[in-house]
Amino acid sequence: MPRIEGESKEELLCTRVTSAIKEAVIHESQTEGLTPSEWLRNLIVKELKERGALRRIYRFPDLDKSRS
Predict the structure, then answer these.
(1) 7: Cα separation from own chain's centroid
(2) Which of 17, 18, 20, 42 lies in the 20 to 30 Å Cα band around 66?
């Protein structure tokens, strides 16, 4: 899958959860073939977009780059 160019992720957001939540996140992320960090980031972005707190940005891949 091609990499999507975008803003680099420099900020860290931490939270505490129960062991049951941690295990559920690990399980769900593995089911989707993602790291827990990627899975949580996707979940946060999806929720923020649904609430209108983040703009929906549609980017189209540069076909010339993907052919090389």
Answers:
(1) 13
(2) 42
Residue-number span of the structural domain to which 23 is assigned:
15-54
Give the total residue count for the chain: 68
Start-to-end CA span in the chain (Å)? 14
Query: Would you say the pTM of this structure is higher than 0.85?
Result: no
Tell me the pLDDT tens digit for each residue of 1-27: 456 667 788 999 999 999 999 999 999
Question: In this structure, what token pair is assigned to residue 7?
Answer: 């803003």
What does R_g of the chain's alpha carbons equal in angstroms?
15
Domain assignment present for 48: yes
